[in-house]
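Annex B, item 7. Sequence and structure tokens for protein A, then protein B.
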Amino acid sequence: MDDLLVERVLRAVDQVPPGRVVSYGDLAALVGTGPRQVGAVLRDWGSGVAWWRVTNRDGDLPGELLGRASTHWEAEGIGLRATGRGCRFAEHRADLAILAHDYARAVGDLHAP
């Protein structure tokens, strides 16, 4: 995978504030890639960022990640859905305009894709 894309995705995740979540698609639109690529970057290189703040648009994560994410969500005040299968995405979604502004500053030193 392209090193620049990896760096852009990781920096985008770093801009999601504690207590907020975004979807793979939100980040993909911000970075200029696809949601599956965002997921692949987080799978392979995301252990050093707040990966639990990135879910699908319903607030779900794969089962193997859900237990680990739930601990972080609880610590950050991100509420679980009544089913316990994901977070209350709409309630905790980050402000995408602020995220875009913060992301632009965070990648200012990188070359454009």
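Protein B:
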Amino acid sequence: MRLVANARMYAATADAAAAWNALFQWLSQASGIDLDVIDHGFPKPMAELWQRGDLGCVFMCGRPWRRADPRPVPLAAPVPAAAGYGGEPRYWSNLLVRADGPIHSLEDSFGGRLGYTVEESQSGFNALRHHLLRWRTPQRPRLYRDSIGPLHTPRGVVRALLAGEIDIGPLDSYAFDLMLQDPDDPAHGLRAVASTEPAPIPILVASPGLGPGTAERLRTALLASADDPAVRPILDRLLLERFAPVDAARYDILERWEEEAIASGYPEPV
């Protein structure tokens, strides 16, 4: 059976999408596993992709991965190359506003309109909600007058900010890095006023029914990719240092953040 590959979560620009496709083509050759790179663009739900039985190498956010039963097979986690990532497979959410607007701190945005992507997203919902917990008090249970979403994707957040539909919104730090590579990208019209704590980054997964030998061949190739001179230019285009093994226990923090928010009576970031 031929398997599918998709990097929609981090196909943040046309160049990034092309680079991911090139990486998947290399992975197919290096692993000896036939991979078909498929399109699964918005508005198709990400859950529809993750539920397929023929996943060979697909990005999946940590929250839905932990919730899935059976859980997709983890292959590898990307390690962004910028110094702020510390050589670790982690990321955070940048809380963004319009660069030409009046908001210069997170506190300046309180009372305005907050955007979010989807409830299942770590970077676009859970990290945001957890970060805002420290400012909520019994006297101020709501920080914003409106919580606007789902905006579905990082691009949806960018568009809503630039259109003036929201005043502040969260964006996956690695996706934002990829956007800023293009000098003409609209994301240059935004700036960060805060960042959440780092969390384990989304991972590449395969279907849970995949044979262990097949998954291991894909995993081995990904983990060795940074040492292949043919792949280094692709990783550079993707702003990646390497791929790392997935430590499943590190993703427990995503559930703890959710539990803390629910216990505090904060089901939605508002």
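Comment on protein B: The two ends are 46 Å apart (CA to CA).
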